[in-house]
Specification:
The chain has one domain (17-50, 62-108). It has six helices and no strands. It has helices spanning 20-33, 37-41, 46-51, 67-80, 84-90, 96-108. The longest helix has 14 residues, at 20-33.
Length: 111
């Protein structure tokens, strides 16, 4: 018998306008679950994370990660959940916020 983590958010791969709305809802859930949604939306910026220095952070504490690490994690999550064609279209966006904004711009006007 197989067990699954019921708290894990299943997220489809964004193929295009046809599944954008459900993809957006699911990826937002995934990003929140991973505690990186604020980096993607711009609510949490790199300047905020430098304002409170961390002294010997606990490596197991997600909240103690640097902004750069959280941005990289968010960027990776998004890239893993978009079609290769969209990855190629948006490859020049190096931050998760820039990537998110580009995907929204590509698909929100279509729907």
């Amino acid at each position: 018998m197989s067990t699954t983590d019921s708290t894990s958010t299943t997220c489809p791969v964004l193929k295009g306008p046809e599944n954008y709305q459900i993809w957006k809802l699911r990826i937002m859930g995934k990003l929140r679950e991973e505690k990186v949604y604020g980096v993607v939306t711009g609510e949490e910026t790199s300047s905020l994370s430098t304002m409170s220095p961390l002294v010997y952070p606990d490596p197991g504490n997600r909240y103690a990660d640097s902004w750069g690490m959280r941005d990289g994690r968010a960027h990776g999550i998004i890239v893993r959940h978009i079609d290769d064609r969209i990855v190629l279209q948006t490859a020049h966006h190096t931050t998760s916020k820039a990537l998110w904004d580009a995907i929204v711009e590509l698909h929100e006007n279509v729907n």
